[in-house]
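Hey Z.,

So I finally got round to the FE2/S2 (inorganic) cluster thing we talked about over coffee. Here's the setup:
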Amino acid sequence: MKLSFSKDAQKEFEEILTRYPNKRASLLMVLHLAQREFEWLSKDAMEYVGSLLDLPFSEVLDTASFYTMFKLKPSGKYHLQVCHTLSCALRGASGLCKHVHKKYGIESGEVSDDGKFSLIKVECLGSCGTAPVVQINDDYHEGLSIEAFDKILNDLK
Ligand code: FES
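And the result:
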């Protein structure tokens, strides 16, 4: 295993542990921390998390692979998560995905050749009343038309 947390991340890890009754209960928070630290959750990163929390790799993988917020492969600089559940589907989510495909040549699960954009279709992002919704990195963009989405994409540096 080659990975380890930076000094700051190690400090944050220790602080996270104080908030939970046992190490297992902190798994989601530690996975967030690991993803921030290592950019995505490689097998090495998940094994490292498992070693920190005394959990088998299979349990870490089970949890990490259940949530689309965890990246199990490298993503682009801008990670586009397009909700495709009912409200968003009815209000044009597939058009948003098609727009990304037309603009950058990528389908769900792919990264653009320049590494700038990755696209993934996700389940409900919890903002159905403002569908369609796209999460770009940590930011939500709601009630998107193709034109509004295109402007947001063009403004990303
Ligand atoms: S259906 Fe898209 S946010 Fe809920």
